[in-house]
Amino acid sequence: MASTAIKSRHRPRSGNIEAVLRRTLDAARGRGATAAEAEVGAGSGLSVTVRNGEVETVEHQADKGLNITVYMGRRKGSAGTTDFSDKALADSVAAACTIAEYASEDPCAGLIDPAYLAGAIPDLDLHHPWELAPEQAIALATECEQHARDADPRLTNSDGTMVSTYSGSHLYGNSHGFIGGWQWSSHSFDCTMIAESGGGMQRDGWFTRARDHLDLEDPRSLGRQAAARTTARLGARRLSTRSAPVIFEAPVADGLFGAFVTAISGAALYRKASFLLGRLGTPVFADHLRIHEEPFLKKGMGSTPFDNDGMATRARDLVRDGVLQGYVLSAYSARKLGMAPTGNAGGVHNLIVEHGGKDLPALLKAMDTGLLVTDLIGFGVNQVTGDYSRGAAGFWVQGGKIQYPVEEITVAGNLADMYRRIVEVGSDVDRRGNIQTGSVLIENLTIAGE
Asked: Does the pTM of the predicted model rise above 0.85?
């Protein structure tokens, strides 16, 4: 039986949460559970929104919660609570056990094999608390919005500028004796503006997000970026229906790879609801593409030492030279598929799409004539067939230069085909989320318009 404990310097400062977790697991054993696992979290934060120079909201957050899963043989039950009193914890355990007693047998249910559990918990530099007073947050949001408004007289209104900060602790443990966790933080600015000209109105903006507030864009540059993106959309036209190359700008290109992750995830595979079913070891992307996980990136938004099963994460290639190297599996989905788990209970951890040497202007020049998509609307991905159809807005490009903004169009294709026809990934990598990619140039897609 494995036994792992987090080192004291990585122990969440809300020291009570480890005691809460241990009491919960002990209570599960006392109720006759053959195995149990629990996760507990606690945190606090501040969020301030300013609109047109006036304070709209000031919200203080103080959150905590616990989820307990018990196993009675191969029967499973789960329950949760935000009350950490002894009675509430006992009631949650009792509820989970009752559910398990009435649940159907599932031969794949159960804790992960102890051999897969994480050992030492590395410091991934995820915790940078920001002691931000409401008055300071209001001043930052006001400054950011004012820089945006001052950038262009056509910016007649604001849809709000938000400053938010949050710090928390996460702890996971199970009846194999494993307990591990870490502290984390996330801070952001988000500025959204409204521009008017010639009877037309457009809305757009920009945001910055980081583990450490010192890594955020400053209010001036963020406001001016939000202003430039908003005014650039004024005078947007519709296109006639056509086929043309398309560049998905980095902030929206991550959706292409999010659909890929879903398609190679265990749940989709064992349900046979994936357009990439049975494609392991075969080409699924253009042969120059590499996509890999890097769960130990310092300050990474997706960094984690272990997954939701307690399994140690690891750096690995999902796609190499265009060929699918592996799936995204939890302990449960791995059992369903008769495979080994991959450390992906809860998803991927810092998915990196390797890029070429061209920035966005160079990609536009390489495309010469086509569509630059900067905004996508609605959800239009069929994960079973791979059919892709999304409402879009952006810019028409000719001679490698942006000519005019476009809107009310639809971009359509099939992801299996689109992946194989990726010409290049740009060097303008968006690192604000768990999927890090630059802009993506794809050969001809259908653009539906007038």
From this structure: yes
